[in-house]
Amino acid sequence: MSVTPINVYSIPELRQTLDADISSELNRLNFKEVFTYVDMKLVIGYSIGMVAGTSFIIDKNFDYKETINYQKLLVLFYVILSGAFWWLTNIFQKNVIYTGENVKEECKVVIRSHFENNNPIYILVIEKTNTKTGKVETINANLPVNKVFNEAGYLQKSLYFEWLKDQLEMSAKKDL
Amino acid sequence: MNLRLELTRFLNVCFILSSTFMVWKGLSVVTDSHSPIVVVISGSMEPAFQRGDVLFLWNRNELNKVGDIVVYEQNSKSIPIVHRVLREHHSQSSSNSKQLLLTKGDNNAGNDISLYADRNIYLDKQNDIVGTVKGYLPKVGYITIWISENQYAKYGLMGLIALSSLFSTE
Amino acid sequence: MYSLSQRFQNVTNQALTYSFLIIGFVIATSWFHLQQNNVFQTPVAINTLNSNINVRSSRFFGSTTGKPKENAKITFDLDADFTPFFNWNTKQIFAYLVAEYNGDEKNTKNTVTFWDKIIADKENAVLSIKSEKSKYAVWDLEDKFAGRELTFKLQWNIQPWIGPLVFGETVGNCTFTLPVEQKEKASSNTNNDEATAEKPQKKNRKARKARKAKATNKDSTENKN
């Protein structure tokens, strides 16, 4: 069971709890999380912060007319970096909550999650790639949230783990 | 404790602050004016503009016309003034594009000569004009007047923004 | 289904979206109304009747070097109807009578305001002005103003309740040359008038300057001592 109960009527809270927990569950299934894109997002994000900070410091300490060309450059950087960040979060890595690798079973997974129309059904799209053959397989899995949350609002991790395991194994069986 | 999670969460606070500032800077670059949006604080343009009204400026025009409402500032320390152009004089030769302007507040009896620095009797379009008023939004600027004149309001608001971004769940 | 912060966010987002829509609607309809009423083709009748020129030496009348400046005033008739300008987004009309002219010695283009008026409501929107004196005494960059050909135009600015400021010009202008002969008479007259008025001032100023100079001299000599 999770440590704190949540308001099970709030979709954002449900999603956040389920998203955050997936990493540790897959860990138990011998998956190792790959942080390439998460780190990339953090680097771009903090670069954006740095660009804005530099612009702010220049603005506060120097004359407007003398520094306008630097400011133009900084605004350009800001636009480019923000565009890259937006593309990464909203198109390329849209809804991606987990990227991981299982060395033993020689496969990689990219997991996307979302809710539709505020229905309490957690929808996972698991993209499983066999690292040996390069074969890509997409699994659509729907989880009614009342299966893993109890009435008090606690996430029952064991049930969640079992469900995830089933989804991944089902595909493995299909493989055979 | 997950460092990446904490960093991502802190990034949200960064984004709120930086986007506010950079949108302002971006506007300033696009309009070529160091303060593209101003709030009226005096009544010298009444009844057209009242205290608290928000004005949107544009400064990419090479020349001003008589009748334009401009914001000018003669040295960076002084408060910017919003007044109407009463006269303009400019050279017709293309090499010399200097334009001289005389301004007046609609609500003032006389022109602005007494307000100009260094015993000038004209403003220099190139150096003194912050921007020409293009758009108008009534009263909304009272918030900023309230914030700038009330320290507690300022810090309170900043704190509220920071807190809300910390606790927001996407 | 909702948390409090999300609900707050939704409400503010919605409020902003709707207010932008309403503002857009107001701006569009008032623009449409202006086009329909053909306000950009509003006719005007301007007639410049008279002018007089005064010579002034004050900084507030354009003289920075101490050289006298010719300050011109005019008398004019004006007829224009601004009633169609008023719609639900019109806060006021600022109507102003300008004169355009070219430089005499220098190659300049100039526009100056002689008179203006704030029209605050529809009831006072018909301007019918007879032999009105110009509000402002106008000088040029050059010391001489007489003999210049002025083209008078009535221009306007619509100050909206919200949205963009609209500027335009009425159709119909009048040209008028500031008479030179009259100026010579007038300026000689005013010269005489002002000479008497101005001399004591100048004297005073000179005396003051002299006194100042003395004082500083004293200071410096004292310092030397």
TrEMBL record, chain A:
The record's Gene Ontology cellular component field reads:
signal peptidase complex
Q: What is its main location?
A: endoplasmic reticulum
InterPro entries under this entry?
Answer: Spc2/SPCS2
Q: Does the keyword DNA damage apply?
A: no
Q: Where in the cell is it found?
A: Endoplasmic reticulum membrane
Report the domain of life of the source organism: Eukaryota
Chain ranges passing through the membrane: 34-58, 70-88
Keyword Ribosomal protein (UniProt): no
As recorded in UniProt, coiled-coil segments are: none
Query: How does the record say this protein sits in the membrane?
Result: Multi-pass membrane protein
Q: Which UniProt keywords apply?
A: Endoplasmic reticulum, Membrane, Transmembrane, Transmembrane helix
An example Pfam family from this entry, by short name, is SPC25
User: PANTHER family, per this entry?
Assistant: MICROSOMAL SIGNAL PEPTIDASE 25 KDA SUBUNIT, SIGNAL PEPTIDASE COMPLEX SUBUNIT 2
Its function? Component of the signal peptidase complex (SPC) which catalyzes the cleavage of N-terminal signal sequences from nascent proteins as they are translocated into the lumen of the endoplasmic reticulum. Enhances the enzymatic activity of SPC and facilitates the interactions between different components of the translocation site.
What is the designated name of this protein? Answer: Signal peptidase complex subunit 2
User: What is the source species?
Assistant: Tetrapisispora phaffii (strain ATCC 24235 / CBS 4417 / NBRC 1672 / NRRL Y-8282 / UCD 70-5)
The uppermost taxa in this organism's lineage are: Eukaryota, Fungi, Dikarya, Ascomycota, Saccharomycotina
Tell me the name of the encoding gene: TPHA0B01800
UniProtKB/TrEMBL annotation, chain B:
Q: Chief localization class? A: endoplasmic reticulum
Of the GO CC terms on this record, one is: signal peptidase complex
Catalyzed chemical reaction(s): Cleavage of hydrophobic, N-terminal signal or leader sequences from secreted and periplasmic proteins
Superkingdom of the organism of origin: Eukaryota
What keywords does the record list, in alphabetical order? Answer: Endoplasmic reticulum, Hydrolase, Membrane, Protease, Signal-anchor, Transmembrane, Transmembrane helix
The keyword Endoplasmic reticulum is assigned to this record? yes
Q: What this chain does, per the record?
A: Catalytic component of the signal peptidase complex (SPC) which catalyzes the cleavage of N-terminal signal sequences from nascent proteins as they are translocated into the lumen of the endoplasmic reticulum. Specifically cleaves N-terminal signal peptides that contain a hydrophobic alpha-helix (h-region) shorter than 18-20 amino acids.
Q: What's the name of the protein? A: Signal peptidase complex catalytic subunit SEC11
Q: From what organism does this protein derive?
A: Tetrapisispora phaffii (strain ATCC 24235 / CBS 4417 / NBRC 1672 / NRRL Y-8282 / UCD 70-5)
UniProtKB/TrEMBL annotation, chain C:
> Main site of residence?
endoplasmic reticulum
Task: Give the record's membrane topology.
Answer: Single-pass type II membrane protein
Membrane-traversing stretches? 15-34
Compositional bias, Basic and acidic residues, is annotated for 216-225
| Region Disordered: start-end pairs | 182-225
The text of the family note is: Belongs to the SPCS3 family.
- Output this protein's name: Signal peptidase subunit 3
